[in-house]
Amino acid sequence: MNYLPISFAEKFSLFDDAWQPKVVAEMNDYQFKLARLEGEFVWHQHADSDETFIVIEGELTIKFRDGVVQLVAGELFVVPKGVEHKPIAAKEAKVLLIEPRGVVNTGDLDEGNRRAENDVWI
Amino acid sequence: MNYLPISFAEKFSLFDDAWQPKVVAEMNDYQFKLARLEGEFVWHQHADSDETFIVIEGELTIKFRDGVVQLVAGELFVVPKGVEHKPIAAKEAKVLLIEPRGVVNTGDLDEGNRRAENDVWI
Asked: Structural domain of residue A86, as residue ranges?
């Protein structure tokens, strides 16, 4: 039989909402999530896990309390666990996130309108 | 300070050997590895872990005992643990592999000239 790969472009064509990660695949207990990022996110951290960002299209800035990293398409950055960070995209960026199942986008923050429903597949 | 992202293109410019994955980053106990694939690899499986392939450039075929998957750039496939597979690239493909630290490229095979040195960083 022919198995089907996951096409990032095809999956991105299925949603428009920003800051709402969509799960597209799992590897062991990790999830691959696609997200459209535009504007400024909130400062937060993930106490129990590193978090990987891979930029698929556009440009992404991640601020830290002690610095910043700038990513363009074809670049990867791993935010260490426990490190406060604030993603910012001046224009829309399409991003692949990789992190353990169960990690919430706003990390340690209990509330706030940036908190996305978790484990939403597309 | 300015932190530096990992650029796939820059890392690929640093090596030419095929079937020799190079680690470029870690997330918890997982590794991100870049590899140039060209020709046919050996049938093998990884008993303890799923393995993720993301094609960065070119085309990749992964054969299974019961089928096949064809990937182009911008596509992802997770090979489930314990599933025999044989990667094939008619022309060179540039691939991002994601799997736990310690996973050997030839999986359950004890020997063979396709076995790459593990945990080589670039």
From this structure: 18-100
State ipTM: 0.95
Residue B54 pLDDT greater than 70, yes or no: yes
Q: B20, B120 in Cβ contact below 8 A?
A: yes
Q: How many CB pairs under 8 A join A and B?
A: 96
Please report residues of B whose CB lies closer than 8 A to that of A77.
3, 5-6
Q: What are the tokens at B52? A: 């993720």
Q: Which residue has the tokens 């493909």?
A: B93
| Residue B52 lies inside a defined structural domain of this protein | yes
Q: Following CA atoms B43, B63, B21, A50 in sequence, which dihedral angle do they give, to the nearest 10 degrees? A: -120
Query: What's the predicted TM-score (pTM) here?
Result: 0.96
Asked if A99's CB is within 8 angstroms of B75's CB, the reply is no
pLDDT at position A101: 96
Asked if residue B70 belongs to a domain, the reply is: yes
